[in-house]
Fold this sequence. Notes:
Layout: H1 13-38, H2 41-55, H3 66-90, H4 111-117, H5 119-125, H6 130-141, H7 146-153, H8 157-172, H9 182-198, H10 201-207, E1 208-217, E2 229-230, H11 232-241, E3 250-257, E4 260-267, E5 270-280, E6 283-290
Amino acid sequence: MSGRTAxxxxxxxxxxxxxxxxxxxxRNLLFTVAYEMLxxxxxxxxxxxxxWLRWVDVDLDSVREQRAYLxxxxxxQALDRLRALxxxxxSYVGPWLPEPLLTAxxxxxxxxxxxxxSMAMLLVLExxxxxxxxxxxxxxxFDLDYDEIAxxxxxxxxxxxxxxxxxxxxxxARRPRGTGSPAEHRAALRAFQRAVETGELQSLLDILAxxxxxxxxxxxxxxALLRPVVGAGKVARLLAGGWWRxxxxxxxxxxQINGGPGLLIRLNGEIDGVVAVRLENxxxxxxxxxxxxxxxxxIERQTIVSR
Length: 307
């Protein structure tokens, strides 16, 4: 939160301390809302800072629903940031992927939350207009009513209903629909881990779906793919022959990335990147490889996401 002291705030410490308690109680929720809207933990943290500065000046006695009020502030700040982020992405070198988060295993137990923060879903949300994205996140993930969402995005409830309908249809047409037992997924993930570590082509072909997609994000700083690679044969050869340096001591550690399976890649003991893996029906259908160092600053500590 801000470095400004309570003495420097209107109302003094008696006002700031209750505001702080409420903000801290909802902080993980607010971070998750901002992150799902932005796909960037760094930008989500900036939004939380801006939200705090506005919240601490609010007369708490005038606020009927503190959670809803905070969500309204964070949504408006995230919408402003989302529009600016869109301009930054236009000049981004290569594919832009969301900033990966190392999440606790229990996040996967909340299927809806895990799906909403997954790399695959965040990429689908990237295809929505900013206000559509906000409406979808607030309605489908956090179950806010239409009146609350209307207050947050500055639209009428009727307009919000239309936006929600359009966003749901858009997402439904693009979201993964895979099934498969946890045992099948674990077996596929471990096979993928072994294949990545050894570079064994046939092992990769055995667990990649025919239409698997590989994306990588180096931000113009690290070597990465400049466009998606599609198809089991092409992705297998990519992974087996050149995605990482062959002359290095490489390890691939199984971790939870954005509520789902992933690999933390180290070269000569140093973190080189993260691969979030999408599994459907026991096969790998998506591999999202983030190497941009600016997006790896949080990857050694867990980030709490919540609804």
